[in-house]
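User: These chains co-purify. Model them together.
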Amino acid sequence: MVLQTETEEKIIASAERLFYQKGKAGTSMQDIADDAGINRTLLNYYFRSKDQLFEAVFRKAMGTFVPNVAAMMSSDISFNDYLPALVEKIIDTMLEHPQIPIFVLQELSSNPERMPQIIKEMGIDPDKVMEKMGKGIASSKIDFDPRQVILSMISLCIFPFAAKPVALDILYGGDEEAYISAMKDRKVLIPMIINQIVSQNQSG
Amino acid sequence: MVLQTETEEKIIASAERLFYQKGKAGTSMQDIADDAGINRTLLNYYFRSKDQLFEAVFRKAMGTFVPNVAAMMSSDISFNDYLPALVEKIIDTMLEHPQIPIFVLQELSSNPERMPQIIKEMGIDPDKVMEKMGKGIASSKIDFDPRQVILSMISLCIFPFAAKPVALDILYGGDEEAYISAMKDRKVLIPMIINQIVSQNQSG
DNA sequence: GATATGTTTAACGAACATGTCAAACGACTT
DNA sequence: AAGTCGTTTGACATGTTCGTTAAACATATC
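Assistant: Joint model of the four components:
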């Protein structure tokens, strides 16, 4: 896995592009081969089957998210202090791979039974996540269920990318630059919003 | 379109379920026919082609969203006052059709070029949306780009449903009831958050 | 009871998709 | 020059999918 042949890289690159855009069933092995400019049989040579090729792409996509969450988990910094850095990291990831959210969510929506194993493999311990969140947020003397705060933060970070075509057209008149710029603005906007929630009962 | 034969209804119902879950390419006409308990040829008899059947389902899915937005637009109530009702409406819609967001976003992500025409057909005038939003929010003496507020509200309402499998497993340990209950809680939570943003500069 | 209309069915044909295999190729070793 | 190894290719077998067509069926009308 560490050392990849040039052909293998081309395959992965093309498979990503096409799977991201058209989905697993919507993409044929021939499509990928054509996009990569190689013979279709090579896909089977390097990845055995379409399922395994898809799996490789899916895992790589998941892998772009996990480091962010993992970093948050392993950090000893309180949630509040860590928040801005986390948001920035997530949004930067999204700016680089805007198509990943839908791709991953679509796959998980089709096969929700995969979740438990994925959680396990990714080394995420739900209990620890909750513990961490509970501690970080409890220190802010807040009523809100920490899960709602987490969910809201993630929603604010990711959804605008998942809904890019809609947002771009309706809110930004198709001006891609304006859209991107707005997404970057959210790096500071979202922590403000979340802080506002968390500190609500303090100032009130 | 007003009057539908029983068979036609069965087809649409099955097509919705399967398209929502497995996507267009991932669902075969045979799958739909089997699910509906009818002969496959009937799908062609009533909808001519897979494309047209999918189109019918997609439009119906889009149609569940638009009334919410349209209502907001046509209403003369200010954005702030209308907010709670709108959020409740959106979340109720999501609770009823939790799979629609991914379905629609996946399709629009695959074919973003559809957006302009969809906007047109749905009778949404981006300029008027902005005007309305600008007015409603401007009255709150706020610095934020109204588009950021809109986008944030929608994100908070919809994303938790798009990410249901993930949220359900990681945050709610697979307890569906707890998840649903949390979603309902957001009906009051989200307006609080948005109000907090909008009124931030007033109280500050 | 024959006929017409709309619905349902089985069978067919063409196109496409996936995986395998044996042969060709290229580079490097002996 | 022969041989070996990994890579690449074309051809094949199998299965699936989609749309059409012609026939069967039902039901209502004359």
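Residues 5, 7, 38-39, 41-42, 45 of chain B lie near DNA strand C (CB under 10 Å from a C1').
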